[in-house]
Amino acid sequence: MRRSSSALALPAPETGQRRDWDTLKTLLPYLLEWKWRVIIALSFLIVAKLANVAVPMVFKEIIDAFTLPREQALLLVPMGLLGAYGLLRFSTSLFTELREIVFARVTQRAQRTIALRVFEHLHALSLRFHLERQTGGLTRDIERGTRAVGSLISFTIYSIVPTLVEIGLVLGILVARYDWTFALITGVTLTLYVTYTITVTNWRTKIRREANEIDSAANVRAIDSLLNYETVKYFNNERWELARYDEQMQKWEAAQVRTQVSLSWLNLGQAGIIAVGVSLMMWRAAVGVTTGAMTVGDIVLVNAFLIQLYMPLNHLGILYREIRQSLTDIERLFSLLQQHREIQDAPDARPLEAGSCAVRFEQVGFAYDAKRQVLFDVDFEIPAGHTLAVVGHSGSGKSTLARLLFRFYDARDGAIRINGSDIRALTQASLRAAIGIVPQDTVLFNDTIFYNIQYGRPAASRDEVIAAARAAHIHDFIESLPERYDTKVGERGLKLSGGEKQRVAIARALLKNPPILIFDEATSALDSKTEKAIQAELEQAAVGRTTLIIAHRLSTVMNADEIVVLDAGRIVERGRHRELLERGGAYAQMWALQQQERGGEAEPA
Fold first, then answer.
1. 367 within a domain of the structure (yes/no)
2. Domain-located, residue 93
Protein backbone atom coordinates (compact mmCIF):
# COMPACT_ATOMS: atom_id res chain seq x y z
CA MET A 1 0.00 0.00 0.00
CA ARG A 2 1.37 3.41 -0.94
CA ARG A 3 1.79 5.71 2.05
CA SER A 4 0.82 9.34 2.02
CA SER A 5 3.44 11.93 2.82
CA SER A 6 0.94 13.88 4.84
CA ALA A 7 1.73 14.15 8.51
CA LEU A 8 -1.91 13.74 9.39
CA ALA A 9 -2.71 10.73 7.23
CA LEU A 10 -0.45 7.98 8.41
CA PRO A 11 -1.83 4.48 7.79
CA ALA A 12 -0.63 1.83 10.15
CA PRO A 13 2.08 -0.42 8.73
CA GLU A 14 1.21 -4.08 8.46
CA THR A 15 4.16 -4.99 10.66
CA GLY A 16 3.05 -2.64 13.41
CA GLN A 17 6.26 -0.62 13.05
CA ARG A 18 7.12 2.18 10.69
CA ARG A 19 9.99 1.67 8.30
CA ASP A 20 12.80 4.16 8.81
CA TRP A 21 12.46 5.56 5.32
CA ASP A 22 8.75 6.15 5.87
CA THR A 23 9.59 8.12 8.99
CA LEU A 24 12.10 10.26 7.12
CA LYS A 25 9.61 10.86 4.29
CA THR A 26 7.05 11.98 6.83
CA LEU A 27 9.40 14.74 7.99
CA LEU A 28 10.01 16.10 4.48
CA PRO A 29 6.80 18.19 4.25
CA TYR A 30 7.82 20.07 7.38
CA LEU A 31 11.23 20.91 5.86
CA LEU A 32 9.80 21.86 2.47
CA GLU A 33 7.65 24.51 4.13
CA TRP A 34 10.96 26.43 4.42
CA LYS A 35 12.45 25.39 1.07
CA TRP A 36 14.60 28.48 0.55
CA ARG A 37 16.05 28.32 4.04
CA VAL A 38 16.99 24.69 3.41
CA ILE A 39 18.68 25.57 0.09
CA ILE A 40 20.62 28.47 1.62
CA ALA A 41 21.66 26.33 4.61
CA LEU A 42 22.91 23.56 2.31
CA SER A 43 24.86 26.14 0.27
CA PHE A 44 26.56 27.40 3.43
CA LEU A 45 27.26 23.78 4.37
CA ILE A 46 29.07 23.07 1.08
CA VAL A 47 31.12 26.29 1.31
CA ALA A 48 32.11 25.45 4.89
CA LYS A 49 33.29 21.97 3.88
CA LEU A 50 35.23 23.30 0.89
CA ALA A 51 37.03 25.70 3.21
CA ASN A 52 37.66 22.92 5.72
CA VAL A 53 39.21 20.65 3.09
CA ALA A 54 41.30 23.50 1.69
CA VAL A 55 42.95 24.19 5.07
CA PRO A 56 45.24 21.08 5.01
CA MET A 57 46.14 21.76 1.39
CA VAL A 58 47.34 25.28 2.21
CA PHE A 59 49.11 23.93 5.28
CA LYS A 60 50.93 21.38 3.06
CA GLU A 61 52.28 24.21 0.88
CA ILE A 62 53.51 26.04 3.96
CA ILE A 63 55.25 22.91 5.34
CA ASP A 64 56.89 22.14 2.00
CA ALA A 65 58.20 25.69 1.81
CA PHE A 66 59.76 25.49 5.26
CA THR A 67 61.56 22.22 4.42
CA LEU A 68 63.64 24.16 1.88
CA PRO A 69 66.81 26.10 2.84
CA ARG A 70 66.09 29.15 4.98
CA GLU A 71 66.55 31.73 2.23
CA GLN A 72 64.29 29.90 -0.20
CA ALA A 73 61.71 29.29 2.51
CA LEU A 74 61.41 33.02 3.20
CA LEU A 75 60.80 33.66 -0.50
CA LEU A 76 58.30 30.83 -0.98
CA VAL A 77 56.12 31.56 2.05
CA PRO A 78 54.46 34.85 1.23
CA MET A 79 52.18 36.48 3.77
CA GLY A 80 49.22 35.84 1.46
CA LEU A 81 49.57 32.08 1.99
CA LEU A 82 49.56 32.50 5.74
CA GLY A 83 46.63 34.89 5.45
CA ALA A 84 44.74 32.38 3.30
CA TYR A 85 45.32 29.71 5.97
CA GLY A 86 43.80 31.91 8.68
CA LEU A 87 40.94 33.04 6.43
CA LEU A 88 40.02 29.47 5.53
CA ARG A 89 40.07 28.49 9.19
CA PHE A 90 37.70 31.34 10.00
CA SER A 91 35.52 30.67 6.94
CA THR A 92 34.88 27.10 8.12
CA SER A 93 33.44 28.37 11.40
CA LEU A 94 31.69 31.34 9.77
CA PHE A 95 29.72 29.35 7.21
CA THR A 96 28.98 26.56 9.72
CA GLU A 97 27.40 29.07 12.08
CA LEU A 98 25.56 30.82 9.24
CA ARG A 99 24.12 27.45 8.26
CA GLU A 100 22.88 26.86 11.79
CA ILE A 101 21.41 30.37 12.05
CA VAL A 102 19.49 29.96 8.80
CA PHE A 103 18.29 26.42 9.59
CA ALA A 104 17.41 26.94 13.27
CA ARG A 105 13.86 28.15 12.51
CA VAL A 106 13.26 25.15 10.24
CA THR A 107 14.13 22.68 13.00
CA GLN A 108 12.20 24.42 15.76
CA ARG A 109 9.12 25.07 13.61
CA ALA A 110 9.00 21.44 12.45
CA GLN A 111 9.26 20.24 16.05
CA ARG A 112 6.54 22.64 17.16
CA THR A 113 4.21 21.78 14.25
CA ILE A 114 4.46 18.03 14.80
CA ALA A 115 3.89 18.42 18.54
CA LEU A 116 0.79 20.55 17.86
CA ARG A 117 -0.60 18.05 15.36
CA VAL A 118 -0.13 15.15 17.76
CA PHE A 119 -1.77 17.18 20.53
CA GLU A 120 -4.66 18.11 18.22
CA HIS A 121 -5.06 14.51 17.05
CA LEU A 122 -5.16 13.20 20.62
CA HIS A 123 -8.03 15.56 21.38
CA ALA A 124 -9.79 14.34 18.23
CA LEU A 125 -9.63 10.68 19.29
CA SER A 126 -12.62 9.02 20.87
CA LEU A 127 -13.40 8.79 24.55
CA ARG A 128 -12.80 5.04 24.24
CA PHE A 129 -9.11 5.68 23.43
CA HIS A 130 -8.68 8.02 26.39
CA LEU A 131 -10.39 5.64 28.79
CA GLU A 132 -8.05 2.84 27.74
CA ARG A 133 -4.82 4.87 27.57
CA GLN A 134 -2.10 4.87 30.21
CA THR A 135 -1.33 8.52 30.86
CA GLY A 136 2.23 8.04 32.13
CA GLY A 137 3.38 6.02 29.13
CA LEU A 138 1.54 8.31 26.70
CA THR A 139 3.14 11.49 28.02
CA ARG A 140 6.59 9.87 28.04
CA ASP A 141 6.16 8.78 24.41
CA ILE A 142 5.10 12.29 23.37
CA GLU A 143 7.98 13.89 25.27
CA ARG A 144 10.62 11.55 23.83
CA GLY A 145 9.13 11.62 20.33
CA THR A 146 8.88 15.41 20.12
CA ARG A 147 12.47 15.78 21.30
CA ALA A 148 13.58 13.13 18.82
CA VAL A 149 12.03 15.03 15.90
CA GLY A 150 14.37 17.97 16.51
CA SER A 151 17.30 15.63 17.07
CA LEU A 152 16.71 13.69 13.86
CA ILE A 153 16.45 16.82 11.71
CA SER A 154 19.53 18.31 13.33
CA PHE A 155 21.55 15.11 12.97
CA THR A 156 20.61 14.75 9.32
CA ILE A 157 21.21 18.32 8.16
CA TYR A 158 23.96 19.35 10.57
CA SER A 159 25.98 16.14 10.65
CA ILE A 160 25.16 13.37 8.17
CA VAL A 161 25.09 15.55 5.03
CA PRO A 162 28.25 17.54 6.00
CA THR A 163 30.09 14.29 6.76
CA LEU A 164 29.16 12.77 3.40
CA VAL A 165 30.22 15.95 1.58
CA GLU A 166 33.56 16.02 3.38
CA ILE A 167 34.25 12.33 2.76
CA GLY A 168 33.48 12.79 -0.94
CA LEU A 169 35.82 15.78 -1.21
CA VAL A 170 38.69 14.02 0.60
CA LEU A 171 38.35 10.87 -1.49
CA GLY A 172 38.34 12.96 -4.66
CA ILE A 173 41.54 14.78 -3.64
CA LEU A 174 43.29 11.54 -2.68
CA VAL A 175 42.47 9.99 -6.06
CA ALA A 176 43.50 13.11 -8.00
CA ARG A 177 46.79 13.84 -6.19
CA TYR A 178 48.11 10.51 -4.92
CA ASP A 179 48.30 6.79 -5.58
CA TRP A 180 44.97 4.96 -5.89
CA THR A 181 45.85 2.84 -2.87
CA PHE A 182 45.16 5.81 -0.56
CA ALA A 183 41.60 6.03 -1.79
CA LEU A 184 41.26 2.24 -1.65
CA ILE A 185 42.40 2.05 1.99
CA THR A 186 40.13 4.97 2.89
CA GLY A 187 37.15 3.46 1.04
CA VAL A 188 37.58 0.00 2.59
CA THR A 189 37.94 1.51 6.07
CA LEU A 190 34.79 3.57 5.55
CA THR A 191 32.85 0.57 4.27
CA LEU A 192 33.91 -1.69 7.14
CA TYR A 193 33.23 1.03 9.69
CA VAL A 194 29.74 1.86 8.38
CA THR A 195 28.80 -1.82 7.92
CA TYR A 196 29.93 -2.74 11.42
CA THR A 197 28.21 0.30 12.93
CA ILE A 198 24.90 -0.37 11.19
CA THR A 199 24.92 -4.09 12.03
CA VAL A 200 25.71 -3.66 15.71
CA THR A 201 23.46 -0.63 16.11
CA ASN A 202 20.49 -2.48 14.64
CA TRP A 203 21.09 -5.17 17.25
CA ARG A 204 21.35 -2.50 19.95
CA THR A 205 18.15 -0.82 18.78
CA LYS A 206 16.13 -3.90 19.74
CA ILE A 207 17.68 -3.76 23.20
CA ARG A 208 17.02 -0.02 23.44
CA ARG A 209 13.41 -0.43 22.33
CA GLU A 210 12.90 -3.00 25.07
CA ALA A 211 14.45 -0.58 27.57
CA ASN A 212 12.04 2.14 26.42
CA GLU A 213 9.06 -0.16 26.86
CA ILE A 214 10.18 -0.99 30.38
CA ASP A 215 10.87 2.69 31.12
CA SER A 216 7.35 3.66 29.99
CA ALA A 217 5.82 0.84 32.04
CA ALA A 218 7.72 1.98 35.15
CA ASN A 219 6.56 5.55 34.53
CA VAL A 220 2.96 4.38 34.20
CA ARG A 221 3.13 2.61 37.55
CA ALA A 222 4.73 5.59 39.26
CA ILE A 223 2.20 8.14 37.95
CA ASP A 224 -0.77 5.85 38.57
CA SER A 225 0.36 5.36 42.15
CA LEU A 226 0.88 9.09 42.74
CA LEU A 227 -2.47 10.01 41.17
CA ASN A 228 -4.08 7.57 43.60
CA TYR A 229 -2.07 8.85 46.57
CA GLU A 230 -5.05 8.92 48.92
CA THR A 231 -6.10 5.38 48.03
CA VAL A 232 -2.55 4.15 48.73
CA LYS A 233 -2.69 5.82 52.14
CA TYR A 234 -6.20 4.53 52.91
CA PHE A 235 -5.02 0.93 52.57
CA ASN A 236 -1.51 1.43 53.98
CA ASN A 237 0.01 0.05 50.78
CA GLU A 238 3.15 2.18 50.43
CA ARG A 239 5.41 -0.87 50.64
CA TRP A 240 3.26 -2.70 48.09
CA GLU A 241 3.50 0.21 45.65
CA LEU A 242 7.25 0.44 46.22
CA ALA A 243 7.62 -3.28 45.52
CA ARG A 244 5.58 -3.01 42.30
CA TYR A 245 7.65 -0.02 41.16
CA ASP A 246 10.90 -1.77 42.04
CA GLU A 247 9.81 -4.80 40.02
CA GLN A 248 9.75 -2.60 36.93
CA MET A 249 12.93 -0.78 37.90
CA GLN A 250 14.81 -4.10 38.21
CA LYS A 251 13.83 -4.91 34.63
CA TRP A 252 14.87 -1.39 33.61
CA GLU A 253 18.23 -1.81 35.36
CA ALA A 254 18.91 -5.08 33.54
CA ALA A 255 17.91 -3.54 30.20
CA GLN A 256 20.18 -0.52 30.80
CA VAL A 257 23.12 -2.82 31.63
CA ARG A 258 22.58 -4.73 28.38
CA THR A 259 22.43 -1.42 26.54
CA GLN A 260 25.73 -0.25 28.02
CA VAL A 261 27.52 -3.57 27.34
CA SER A 262 26.39 -3.54 23.73
CA LEU A 263 27.56 0.07 23.43
CA SER A 264 31.02 -0.88 24.67
CA TRP A 265 31.28 -3.64 22.04
CA LEU A 266 30.26 -1.16 19.38
CA ASN A 267 32.85 1.40 20.49
CA LEU A 268 35.64 -1.19 20.63
CA GLY A 269 34.90 -2.46 17.13
CA GLN A 270 34.78 1.06 15.71
CA ALA A 271 38.07 2.01 17.37
CA GLY A 272 39.75 -1.15 16.01
CA ILE A 273 38.65 -0.49 12.42
CA ILE A 274 39.79 3.14 12.58
CA ALA A 275 43.14 2.15 14.12
CA VAL A 276 43.87 -0.35 11.34
CA GLY A 277 42.84 2.13 8.63
CA VAL A 278 44.96 4.95 10.07
CA SER A 279 48.00 2.68 10.44
CA LEU A 280 47.76 1.51 6.80
CA MET A 281 47.38 5.06 5.50
CA MET A 282 50.39 6.33 7.48
CA TRP A 283 52.48 3.34 6.37
CA ARG A 284 51.63 4.04 2.73
CA ALA A 285 52.45 7.74 3.16
CA ALA A 286 55.75 6.94 4.87
CA VAL A 287 56.74 4.66 1.99
CA GLY A 288 55.97 7.47 -0.45
CA VAL A 289 58.20 9.92 1.42
CA THR A 290 61.14 7.49 1.64
CA THR A 291 60.95 6.79 -2.11
CA GLY A 292 60.77 10.49 -2.93
CA ALA A 293 57.30 10.22 -4.48
CA MET A 294 55.84 12.39 -1.70
CA THR A 295 57.08 15.37 0.27
CA VAL A 296 56.94 16.01 3.98
CA GLY A 297 54.06 18.35 3.22
CA ASP A 298 52.23 15.46 1.53
CA ILE A 299 52.51 13.27 4.60
CA VAL A 300 51.26 16.18 6.70
CA LEU A 301 48.37 16.61 4.24
CA VAL A 302 47.47 12.90 4.35
CA ASN A 303 47.67 12.93 8.13
CA ALA A 304 45.44 16.02 8.28
CA PHE A 305 42.94 14.36 5.95
CA LEU A 306 43.02 11.26 8.15
CA ILE A 307 42.20 13.36 11.19
CA GLN A 308 39.41 15.13 9.31
CA LEU A 309 38.00 11.77 8.22
CA TYR A 310 38.51 10.14 11.59
CA MET A 311 36.51 12.77 13.46
CA PRO A 312 33.45 12.61 11.15
CA LEU A 313 33.68 8.81 11.12
CA ASN A 314 33.77 8.63 14.88
CA HIS A 315 30.96 11.18 15.02
CA LEU A 316 29.05 9.26 12.36
CA GLY A 317 28.99 6.20 14.59
CA ILE A 318 27.54 8.21 17.45
CA LEU A 319 25.10 9.89 15.09
CA TYR A 320 23.85 6.63 13.67
CA ARG A 321 23.16 5.32 17.16
CA GLU A 322 21.32 8.53 18.04
CA ILE A 323 19.40 8.52 14.76
CA ARG A 324 18.31 4.93 15.34
CA GLN A 325 17.15 5.91 18.82
CA SER A 326 15.38 8.98 17.45
CA LEU A 327 13.64 6.86 14.83
CA THR A 328 12.52 4.46 17.56
CA ASP A 329 11.07 7.33 19.60
CA ILE A 330 9.46 9.02 16.57
CA GLU A 331 7.95 5.68 15.57
CA ARG A 332 5.98 5.68 18.81
CA LEU A 333 5.02 9.34 18.39
CA PHE A 334 3.77 8.84 14.84
CA SER A 335 1.87 5.73 15.94
CA LEU A 336 -0.37 8.13 17.88
CA LEU A 337 -1.16 9.93 14.62
CA GLN A 338 -2.10 6.55 13.17
CA GLN A 339 -4.74 6.00 15.84
CA HIS A 340 -8.12 5.82 14.11
CA ARG A 341 -10.58 8.60 14.86
CA GLU A 342 -13.60 6.59 15.89
CA ILE A 343 -15.85 9.67 15.76
CA GLN A 344 -15.36 11.96 12.75
CA ASP A 345 -17.34 14.67 11.06
CA ALA A 346 -19.10 13.51 7.91
CA PRO A 347 -17.69 15.04 4.70
CA ASP A 348 -20.90 17.07 4.29
CA ALA A 349 -21.39 17.83 8.01
CA ARG A 350 -23.05 21.17 8.68
CA PRO A 351 -23.03 23.35 11.80
CA LEU A 352 -25.97 23.34 14.17
CA GLU A 353 -27.93 26.54 13.78
CA ALA A 354 -28.03 28.85 16.78
CA GLY A 355 -31.23 29.04 18.80
CA SER A 356 -33.41 26.79 20.93
CA CYS A 357 -33.01 23.05 20.49
CA ALA A 358 -35.33 20.07 20.67
CA VAL A 359 -33.66 16.72 21.40
CA ARG A 360 -35.00 13.32 20.39
CA PHE A 361 -33.65 9.80 21.02
CA GLU A 362 -35.16 7.45 18.42
CA GLN A 363 -35.00 3.74 19.26
CA VAL A 364 -31.38 4.13 20.40
CA GLY A 365 -29.36 0.99 21.09
CA PHE A 366 -25.74 1.03 22.23
CA ALA A 367 -22.99 -1.22 23.55
CA TYR A 368 -19.49 -0.30 24.72
CA ASP A 369 -18.56 -3.89 24.07
CA ALA A 370 -20.25 -6.13 21.53
CA LYS A 371 -20.69 -8.78 24.22
CA ARG A 372 -22.74 -6.54 26.54
CA GLN A 373 -25.38 -4.12 25.29
CA VAL A 374 -26.06 -1.11 27.53
CA LEU A 375 -29.12 0.53 25.95
CA PHE A 376 -32.13 -1.07 24.23
CA ASP A 377 -34.62 0.87 22.07
CA VAL A 378 -34.43 4.03 24.17
CA ASP A 379 -37.01 6.47 22.79
CA PHE A 380 -37.91 9.87 24.21
CA GLU A 381 -38.14 13.53 23.22
CA ILE A 382 -37.21 16.74 25.02
CA PRO A 383 -39.09 19.65 23.41
CA ALA A 384 -37.20 22.94 23.20
CA GLY A 385 -37.17 24.66 26.58
CA HIS A 386 -38.44 21.60 28.47
CA THR A 387 -36.79 19.45 31.13
CA LEU A 388 -36.59 15.68 31.04
CA ALA A 389 -35.15 13.61 33.87
CA VAL A 390 -33.72 10.11 33.58
CA VAL A 391 -33.57 8.08 36.77
CA GLY A 392 -32.64 4.53 37.59
CA HIS A 393 -30.30 2.36 39.60
CA SER A 394 -26.54 2.45 39.06
CA GLY A 395 -25.54 0.73 35.84
CA SER A 396 -28.90 1.26 34.16
CA GLY A 397 -27.29 3.33 31.36
CA LYS A 398 -28.21 6.86 32.48
CA SER A 399 -24.79 8.51 31.99
CA THR A 400 -24.40 6.76 28.63
CA LEU A 401 -27.19 8.98 27.31
CA ALA A 402 -25.11 12.09 27.97
CA ARG A 403 -22.06 10.57 26.27
CA LEU A 404 -24.11 9.71 23.22
CA LEU A 405 -25.66 13.18 23.06
CA PHE A 406 -22.18 14.72 23.21
CA ARG A 407 -21.22 12.22 20.49
CA PHE A 408 -18.34 10.74 22.41
CA TYR A 409 -19.72 7.55 20.89
CA ASP A 410 -22.16 6.91 18.07
CA ALA A 411 -25.37 5.00 18.67
CA ARG A 412 -25.25 1.49 17.25
CA ASP A 413 -28.97 1.44 16.53
CA GLY A 414 -31.44 4.23 16.02
CA ALA A 415 -30.58 7.93 15.94
CA ILE A 416 -30.26 11.01 18.12
CA ARG A 417 -31.70 14.16 16.59
CA ILE A 418 -31.52 17.85 17.43
CA ASN A 419 -34.17 19.98 15.74
CA GLY A 420 -34.82 17.03 13.45
CA SER A 421 -31.19 16.63 12.30
CA ASP A 422 -29.23 13.48 13.06
CA ILE A 423 -26.28 14.61 15.18
CA ARG A 424 -24.01 12.51 12.93
CA ALA A 425 -24.80 15.01 10.17
CA LEU A 426 -23.68 17.95 12.34
CA THR A 427 -20.16 19.18 13.03
CA GLN A 428 -18.90 18.03 16.40
CA ALA A 429 -17.69 21.52 17.29
CA SER A 430 -21.12 23.13 16.81
CA LEU A 431 -22.87 20.23 18.55
CA ARG A 432 -20.74 20.41 21.66
CA ALA A 433 -20.83 24.20 21.70
CA ALA A 434 -24.61 23.91 22.13
CA ILE A 435 -24.41 21.63 25.18
CA GLY A 436 -23.34 22.42 28.71
CA ILE A 437 -22.76 19.68 31.27
CA VAL A 438 -22.20 19.27 34.97
CA PRO A 439 -20.68 15.78 35.19
CA GLN A 440 -20.96 13.39 38.06
CA ASP A 441 -17.18 13.17 38.50
CA THR A 442 -15.84 16.72 38.25
CA VAL A 443 -12.17 17.00 37.32
CA LEU A 444 -10.55 20.43 37.44
CA PHE A 445 -7.38 21.78 35.89
CA ASN A 446 -4.40 22.38 38.16
CA ASP A 447 -4.93 26.14 37.97
CA THR A 448 -6.93 28.85 39.72
CA ILE A 449 -10.62 28.72 40.59
CA PHE A 450 -11.12 31.67 38.24
CA TYR A 451 -9.50 29.78 35.35
CA ASN A 452 -11.61 26.68 35.98
CA ILE A 453 -14.88 28.65 35.96
CA GLN A 454 -13.85 30.82 32.99
CA TYR A 455 -13.03 27.61 31.07
CA GLY A 456 -16.76 27.38 30.33
CA ARG A 457 -16.35 30.43 28.10
CA PRO A 458 -12.70 31.60 27.92
CA ALA A 459 -13.69 35.01 26.50
CA ALA A 460 -15.97 35.78 29.47
CA SER A 461 -15.22 38.85 31.58
CA ARG A 462 -14.38 38.73 35.26
CA ASP A 463 -17.81 40.08 36.17
CA GLU A 464 -19.48 37.28 34.19
CA VAL A 465 -17.34 34.67 35.95
CA ILE A 466 -18.29 36.09 39.34
CA ALA A 467 -21.97 36.16 38.35
CA ALA A 468 -21.78 32.47 37.41
CA ALA A 469 -20.09 31.71 40.74
CA ARG A 470 -22.87 33.52 42.60
CA ALA A 471 -25.50 31.53 40.70
CA ALA A 472 -23.74 28.31 41.74
CA HIS A 473 -23.59 29.46 45.38
CA ILE A 474 -19.81 29.28 45.53
CA HIS A 475 -18.89 32.99 45.43
CA ASP A 476 -18.99 33.45 49.22
CA PHE A 477 -16.76 30.42 49.73
CA ILE A 478 -14.26 31.70 47.16
CA GLU A 479 -14.18 35.15 48.79
CA SER A 480 -13.37 33.51 52.14
CA LEU A 481 -10.15 32.06 50.75
CA PRO A 482 -6.87 34.01 51.21
CA GLU A 483 -6.26 34.25 47.46
CA ARG A 484 -9.95 34.31 46.51
CA TYR A 485 -10.45 33.56 42.80
CA ASP A 486 -6.69 33.15 42.32
CA THR A 487 -6.62 30.11 44.62
CA LYS A 488 -4.96 27.08 43.02
CA VAL A 489 -7.16 23.98 43.13
CA GLY A 490 -4.33 21.42 42.83
CA GLU A 491 -3.96 18.33 40.65
CA ARG A 492 -7.43 17.29 39.42
CA GLY A 493 -8.91 19.79 41.90
CA LEU A 494 -7.91 17.73 44.94
CA LYS A 495 -7.56 20.82 47.17
CA LEU A 496 -11.32 21.30 47.02
CA SER A 497 -13.98 19.09 48.52
CA GLY A 498 -16.31 17.08 46.32
CA GLY A 499 -19.13 19.60 46.83
CA GLU A 500 -16.89 22.59 46.11
CA LYS A 501 -15.63 20.98 42.90
CA GLN A 502 -19.19 20.29 41.80
CA ARG A 503 -20.26 23.88 42.41
CA VAL A 504 -17.30 25.06 40.31
CA ALA A 505 -18.53 22.71 37.57
CA ILE A 506 -22.05 24.14 37.87
CA ALA A 507 -20.70 27.70 37.59
CA ARG A 508 -18.65 26.68 34.56
CA ALA A 509 -21.69 25.20 32.81
CA LEU A 510 -23.82 28.26 33.61
CA LEU A 511 -21.12 30.54 32.22
CA LYS A 512 -21.12 28.63 28.92
CA ASN A 513 -24.80 29.59 28.56
CA PRO A 514 -25.75 26.82 26.06
CA PRO A 515 -29.25 26.07 24.72
CA ILE A 516 -28.97 22.47 26.01
CA LEU A 517 -28.03 21.61 29.60
CA ILE A 518 -27.11 18.22 31.04
CA PHE A 519 -26.96 17.66 34.79
CA ASP A 520 -25.35 14.26 35.34
CA GLU A 521 -25.79 13.65 39.06
CA ALA A 522 -25.02 17.37 39.41
CA THR A 523 -25.75 17.51 43.15
CA SER A 524 -24.58 14.03 44.13
CA ALA A 525 -21.59 15.35 46.13
CA LEU A 526 -23.59 18.03 47.97
CA ASP A 527 -25.15 17.88 51.40
CA SER A 528 -28.92 18.26 51.69
CA LYS A 529 -28.81 21.94 52.67
CA THR A 530 -26.52 22.94 49.81
CA GLU A 531 -28.45 20.72 47.43
CA LYS A 532 -31.68 22.55 48.21
CA ALA A 533 -29.96 25.91 47.79
CA ILE A 534 -28.50 25.00 44.42
CA GLN A 535 -31.56 23.15 43.19
CA ALA A 536 -33.49 26.39 42.82
CA GLU A 537 -30.59 27.92 40.88
CA LEU A 538 -30.40 24.87 38.59
CA GLU A 539 -34.11 25.09 37.90
CA GLN A 540 -33.75 28.80 37.19
CA ALA A 541 -30.80 28.12 34.86
CA ALA A 542 -32.88 25.51 33.03
CA VAL A 543 -35.67 27.98 32.23
CA GLY A 544 -35.83 28.44 28.48
CA ARG A 545 -33.24 25.71 27.89
CA THR A 546 -33.63 22.11 26.83
CA THR A 547 -32.47 20.23 29.91
CA LEU A 548 -31.58 16.60 30.51
CA ILE A 549 -31.25 15.68 34.18
CA ILE A 550 -29.59 12.38 35.02
CA ALA A 551 -30.14 11.68 38.67
CA HIS A 552 -30.18 9.10 41.38
CA ARG A 553 -31.76 11.36 44.01
CA LEU A 554 -35.39 11.61 43.00
CA SER A 555 -35.87 14.78 45.04
CA THR A 556 -33.90 16.66 42.36
CA VAL A 557 -36.24 15.72 39.50
CA MET A 558 -39.68 16.32 41.01
CA ASN A 559 -40.35 19.40 38.88
CA ALA A 560 -39.22 17.91 35.55
CA ASP A 561 -41.69 18.06 32.67
CA GLU A 562 -41.21 14.33 32.18
CA ILE A 563 -39.37 11.61 34.08
CA VAL A 564 -38.03 8.50 32.35
CA VAL A 565 -37.16 5.44 34.45
CA LEU A 566 -34.37 3.25 33.08
CA ASP A 567 -33.79 -0.31 34.20
CA ALA A 568 -31.02 -2.42 32.64
CA GLY A 569 -30.89 -0.12 29.63
CA ARG A 570 -34.65 -0.13 28.91
CA ILE A 571 -37.33 2.45 29.62
CA VAL A 572 -39.74 0.87 32.06
CA GLU A 573 -41.79 3.93 33.07
CA ARG A 574 -42.33 7.52 32.07
CA GLY A 575 -44.46 10.42 33.27
CA ARG A 576 -44.49 13.29 35.74
CA HIS A 577 -43.53 12.90 39.39
CA ARG A 578 -47.03 12.66 40.82
CA GLU A 579 -48.28 10.37 38.04
CA LEU A 580 -45.44 7.92 38.64
CA LEU A 581 -46.05 7.87 42.39
CA GLU A 582 -49.72 7.12 41.83
CA ARG A 583 -48.89 4.17 39.57
CA GLY A 584 -46.98 2.47 42.36
CA GLY A 585 -44.35 1.05 40.00
CA ALA A 586 -40.56 1.14 39.92
CA TYR A 587 -40.38 4.91 40.45
CA ALA A 588 -42.70 4.80 43.46
CA GLN A 589 -40.61 2.01 44.99
CA MET A 590 -37.39 4.02 44.49
CA TRP A 591 -39.07 7.08 46.04
CA ALA A 592 -40.22 5.13 49.09
CA LEU A 593 -36.79 3.59 49.56
CA GLN A 594 -35.06 6.96 49.38
CA GLN A 595 -37.52 8.51 51.83
CA GLN A 596 -36.79 5.65 54.22
CA GLU A 597 -33.04 6.19 53.82
CA ARG A 598 -33.48 9.91 54.56
CA GLY A 599 -35.01 8.99 57.91
CA GLY A 600 -38.56 9.74 56.95
CA GLU A 601 -37.85 13.37 56.08
CA ALA A 602 -40.95 14.64 54.43
CA GLU A 603 -40.83 15.52 50.77
CA PRO A 604 -43.70 17.10 48.92
CA ALA A 605 -45.39 14.69 46.58
1. no
2. yes
